[in-house]
């Protein structure tokens, strides 16, 4: 195990899950379908679990969390507002969320490959998160079809 790779992969998990939670938080302000909102809350809760696990592991190396950066959050808030200005339909929001999940899964896959000398814990946590995001893609596709 390479400690630098381990830290970097854990940071990527924190960043990715933090951005996911933040995106869901912004999108929820535009969601009027209670069932869809519930699903998004569940997804945000799982993202928080990934972030906490990665942060707990990072704390073994040094103190401080590695979540999303504040500037990224402001850009995200603006992007969500712009994309939902013309349509707040569930299908449209599910499509937005699907794109975010795909980007998140792809970024984590690249990080797993890039930090291939990370330890088992970080690698397995990242793979678990990729699997979770890919499951969300399927759920979101169903929401797009149903609405």
Explained architecture:
There is one protein chain. The chain is mainly alpha-helical. The chain is built from five helices and no strands. It has helices spanning 3-28, 34-58, 70-84, 90-114, 120-146. Mean pLDDT is 86; it is low at 76-80.
Short précis:
The protein has 147 residues and is mostly helical.
Topology record:
Elements: H1 3-28, H2 34-58, H3 70-84, H4 90-114, H5 120-146
Helix pairs in contact: 1-2, 1-3, 1-4, 1-5, 2-5, 4-5
**What is the C-alpha radius of gyration, as a whole number of Å?**
16 Å
Strand coverage percent = under 5%
How much is the average pLDDT?
86
Order of helices and strands: HHHHH
Shape: elongated
The largest sheet, given as strand count, sense and whether it forms a barrel, is: none
Give structural attributes.
mainly alpha; 80% helix; 0% strand
